[in-house]
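Section 5: illustrative case.
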């Protein structure tokens, strides 16, 4: 049967397949085919293809594929799973059930190299956790998010794929030539896409391993010249950037308020501040707003532009973001 396909070089195949899947354009009813150095990826809506892929559109016979075998079909119930690159994460207290799920994941058509189970909560000031490796043999992966790649080791750095939509919301506000300081940058999920939009980004993190990955990821995504990575406590390492920031990212929701004096010192004449917090549902935005106003003092006018609930964090508690405009008086 002849179907529309995107024809690309084999070495680009996986990256293009993931782009099409993210955009809901991948035709799962027909098989991907390889012919020589070219891979042919069936698509569902040729008219919706981005311009750089539309030029590669061809018609080609493609075999129909069987319906993918999912972990749920194997198990007879829907397990709770989270994808991070080629790692699948389960969250089960029952070891026997966790291993049952891992076996089903590896036997399914779900692309996966490793299955991990959470073995501890997030711990320490570096915000990492311990893992049980149920299948596979490693905790390092490459995660893809909105067209960018992030190498990371989940046992060494903090990274939450569940925040992808929130990160994208903030990143889309960035304009070229901004001076951005990401105060708790991790492996770069804010910093690198912001640099890709034309910003100059100073990215700080206390975790030396995260900074090593951030530098690697800046190279991997072609933005190394726009990213300055600094290992250490942002309160002690950024004096040279005082009064320069057009935008500040403060994604450390349990304790970002302790860094607000530093944020105010880094802010330029006008500065967008993205302040993350965890608060009770009775007043999710008030404590953060009051803390920002107190830190700004008489130096800045404070305008809260967005009060945004990111997700539920615990019973009666929310992870929230305040998008705030600081304007020097």
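Designed sequence:
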């Amino acid at each position: 049967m002849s179907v529309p396909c995107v024809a690309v070089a084999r070495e680009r195949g996986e990256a293009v397949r993931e782009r099409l899947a993210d955009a809901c354009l991948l035709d799962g009813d027909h098989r991907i085919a390889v012919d020589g150095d070219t891979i042919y990826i069936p698509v569902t809506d040729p008219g919706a293809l981005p311009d750089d892929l539309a030029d590669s559109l061809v018609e080609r016979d493609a075999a129909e594929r069987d319906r993918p075998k999912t972990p749920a079909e194997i198990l007879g119930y829907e397990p709770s799973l989270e994808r991070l690159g080629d790692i699948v994460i389960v969250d089960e207290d029952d070891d026997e059930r966790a291993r049952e799920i891992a076996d089903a994941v590896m036997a399914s058509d779900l692309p996966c190299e490793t299955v991990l189970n959470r073995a501890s909560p997030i711990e320490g000031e570096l915000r990492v956790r311990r893992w049980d490796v149920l299948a596979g043999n490693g905790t390092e992966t490459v995660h893809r998010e909105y067209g960018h790649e992030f190498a990371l080791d989940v046992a060494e750095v903090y990274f939450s794929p569940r925040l992808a939509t929130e990160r994208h919301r903030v990143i889309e506000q960035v304009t070229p030539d901004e001076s951005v300081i990401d105060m708790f940058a991790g492996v770069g999920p804010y910093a690198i896409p912001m640099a890709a939009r034309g910003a100059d980004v100073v990215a700080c993190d206390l975790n030396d391993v995260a900074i090593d990955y951030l530098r690697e990821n800046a190279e991997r995504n072609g933005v190394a010249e726009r990213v300055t990575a600094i290992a250490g406590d942002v309160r002690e390492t950024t004096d040279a950037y005082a009064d320069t920031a057009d935008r500040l990212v403060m994604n450390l929701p349990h304790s970002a308020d302790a860094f607000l004096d530093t944020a105010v010192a880094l802010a330029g004449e006008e500065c967008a501040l993205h302040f993350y917090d965890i608060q009770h549902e009775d007043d999710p935005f008030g404590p953060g707003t009051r803390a920002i106003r107190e830190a700004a003092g008489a130096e800045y006018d404070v305008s809260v532009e967005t009060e945004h609930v990111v997700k539920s964090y615990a019973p009666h508690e929310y992870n929230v973001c305040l998008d705030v405009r600081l304007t020097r008086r």
